[in-house]
Structures are given as C-alpha cells and as structure tokens.
Fold this protein.
Amino acid sequence: MHNNKQKVVVVGLGYVGLPLALLADRKGFEVIGLDTDKQKIELLSEGKNTFLDESVSKYLPTANIEFTSDFSKIIGSDIIIICVPTPVYENHMPNLELVMSASQKVAEQLSKGQLVILESTVNPEVSEGVVLPILEEVSKLKGGVDFYLAHAPERINPGDKKWNVENINRVVGSLESVGLEKAASFYESILTGTVKRMNSLKEAEAVKVVENSFRDINIAFVNELARSFSLLGIDVVNVIDGAATKPFAFMAHYPGCGVGGHCIPVDPYYLIEHAKKSGFDHDFLSLARRINNGMPHFTVDMVEEGLNEIKKSINGSTVTVLGVSYKSDIDDCRESPSFEIINLLKNKGAEVRVYDPFVMRESNVDSLESALVGADAVILATAHNQFKEIEIQKYKDAGVKIVVDGRNALPKNEFITAGIVYKGIGR
Ligand code: SAJ
C-alpha cells in the first residue's frame, strides 16, 4: 500500500529510468514505469530484469510498479521524469529524437500542476529551447505557471559497486522557483546524496557536460604525456602513480588506446557545437577530443613499430584485437576505440582477428585460443579480467611475437623476459 505520497511516472526504463523507478517505489511513491518497448514492459511486468544490474535484480521482484506502454497513465500523476537515451549523430551532436517524441507524448497528457523532469543528458538550452516549446504547444499550458519543468542530469554509472542511484549527489535546475523546489524536494525525499539547486535549467545541463568534459581533458592530458614519454623512455604510468601520492590537487587518469562510451567522448561535443552557435570556439576541449581520437592511430603505430623490430611489415601480418567493449567487464561497445583500431589495421593490410567474450556479435573468432594461435601481434584493447589472467605461456605457445598493451594492464617485464616484444601506451 502506498502512503499518500505523490504519484511518479518514469518515462524510459533503461539503465537510468529503471533504477530510479525502483528507488521511488521503495521510498513509498506510487510509480508507473512507462516505455514504448512493449517486450521490455512484458518482461518487467513478469519481474524479469532487462539488463545486467545487481540492484535491479535485487529490487525488481518485490517492486510494486505498474509497467505499461500506455501514456494516458500520466493523467493524475504528480511528477513525470523523462529518462530516454540521447545518442549522437555522426557529427557527435545529440540526437534529440527520443527526447522530442517523449516530450510530445507527455504533453498530450499533461495537466495543470504537474512537474516534468528531464534526466537525459542534453546540451545547454535543450530543456528550455526544445522540450519546453513542445510541452507548451501541445498541452496549451504555460510552463512555470500551469506546469513545471526541471532538469536533473543523470549520473548513473553502470556497474559501479559504490555509487548508485540513491547515494550519488545530484543537481537540479528549473524555469522558476516553484518548479525548482518541487523537483529538489522530490529528489531529497528519495536520495541519501545531496541535491544542489542550480539557478536555471541551462546551468543544470551545463553541469553534466562540464563534469564529463573534465574527465575527457584529463584523459587527453595523460594520453599526450604517454606519447611524449614513450619517446623519452619514461614509464608514464609510474609517473602518474607517483604524482597521485600528492594528497591534494591531483586526480589520476590513465592513458589508453582510446576513449569510448556514450558519455565521455560525446558530451564535450555538445558544448563545443553549442558554443559555436554563439561564436565561441572551445579550442581546448576540441584539442582534447583530437588527442583522444588519435590514440587508436598511436596504438596501431605501436603494432607497426613492434613488427618492424622483427623485420615484419604490418601488411600481411595477422593481428588480434582482444576487446571491443569500451571499458572492462561490460558488454557496451558504443563509441569504442576498438572499431577505429580494427579499421586502421585493415587499411594497412593486416589480417585482423577480433575476440571479446562480452561482445561475441562483433567477434570474428569464437575462442581465445583461435584468437591467439598464429597471431604475429596482439592488441589488448579492453582490460577484461579474463584477458588480464591469460598466462604468458599461452602467448608463447600460440607463437605471438608482439603484444601491444592498449590499457597498460599487462605485466610488461614478464613479457620481455619471455622474449615477446611488449609495447605499452607510454610505458
Ligand atoms: N578512460 C581512459 N583513461 C581513464 C579513464 C577512462 O582512457 O583514466 C577511457 C575508458 O577506457 C573508456 C572511456 O575512457 O573507454 C570512458 O571511461 P569512463 O570510466 O569514464 O566510463 P563511462 O563512460 O562509463 O563514464 C561514466 C561517467 N558517468 C556518468 O556520466 C554518469 C563518468 O562521468 C564517470 O566519471 C565514469 O563513468 C566513472 O568514473 O566510472
């Protein structure tokens, strides 16, 4: 039985919306889970988890949530939270189609007094410039007067064992103070984390792009260091670890074969492209993107260098790419640098094998053994635990001559001792 707390509708039941719906349910709200994917609704209604997430598996079976595709269930609700994906186009700009269609469907049911919250990651001014006009034009209601609009950028980090939907601090912005207070007090009633009130919708949107751009530029910093230190014979990872002993004013990031995922390599472009409309060029953010986008090329250069050391050309060599996911032990390969590495190798005439046990649909061999046997060179592109545990003897037995450690995750000295050419990213 739900206490007399408000009725919440979560639109979009992916890795952002579903944990949020389950949390609101646990906190005693009456929750409707809305998604256009009828198959997903069916599975969820049977208590079946639709993606790998421990907290979802834990709470879904006892949740008291109505899962539906019927948007008329919005009628009579107090808070509607839009958590739909914002993928990117080739030019890296956010594809707002799902946000716009969700806004349209919400607007068709919108009534006075309701609060709409957008959690999807968008560039500054999308809430006010895209979502608000749709809500107003379709509902014939006035935002900030008849209904309220807020933005609270999602910060879910899939697979994170420590930070979850309940304890991650949040920011929230709104059109005006009533909507802000409504949204902020909703989040304060379900979170153990803090809720910081921003002065506007676009301040809240800017927070998200800034926090992820921060990560991108810091990764670019160490990637540039890796390129220079590899020429200076300095192990950049040891240096970063040394710098990280400074207990303040330093935050360790590590070089690698590239920056993947649907957040870090994408969000900076939202700001870069948006600022261009006002005539401002984010030279620094753009340079960081260029440096990070150059790491697959640097990684393939390492393969070429290693093959040259054994008097082999990359053209006609067999090169194995271990890992397609953009980060370890997950199956998400969006924006993964592995794809660029594979293309570069093919363009140089290499025979390319691809193996990722988490992403067999992108693999062209069906086992680790068949990935390694007879390979001249192997690139570790994703530091899956399974790959880190491969015995070096397995490489020797397979006749592998060069290992390029794209995530600096392998025991460099043991490979050198085994007579295998080892190339790291800056080490
Ligand atoms: N990467 C590096 N060096 C690093 C860190 C990451 O090359 O030092 C690469 C990874 O290999 C990966 C890409 O960057 O290809 C992104 O890695 P990530 O750890 O940032 O993973 P994401 O994309 O899942 O980022 C998410 C973000 N969370 C949200 O947007 C809510 C990000 O803000 C978090 O900082 C990050 O998780 C995290 O800390 O795990």
Residues 155-157, 211-212, 215, 219, 253-254, 256, 259-261, 263-264, 326-327 surround SAJ (CB under 6 Å). The chain has 16 helices and 13 strands. The chain has a mean pLDDT of 95. The longest strand covers residues 7-11.
